[in-house]
Amino acid sequence: MRLPIIAAALAAALVTTGARAQDVAAGERSWNKCRACHQIGEGAKNLVGPHLNGLFGRHTGEVEGYSYSAANKGANLTWDEATFAEYIKDPKAKIPGTKMVFAGIKNEQEIKDLTAFLKQFGKDGKKM
To answer: How many CB atoms lie within 10 A of CB 122?
Structure first.
């Protein structure tokens, strides 16, 4: 069978060119940058920032019990991978007037990895 050989060659080519899939473990390490202000998982609460359970598919300003800035409430965005990637690079550029004080994550792969980590958690905080 030549298919396993072709698949192995393709995988090797991706590794040598620097392209790689999302890495949840790397995303969890990146999450450490977020932990001071946000929680995720079962029992997560709002802190300085809202909890991030079920982030993707949610609208800005939607977490119950969190006091959002007027800018965030009025942004009228739905969090998807592209919106999150743009936001996390420079939150104040994406939503001027946000109260999120974070310099941003500029590395594209790190953003993909963090996204993969966050996408594991449903609205109830359980891993999906």
So the answer is: 13
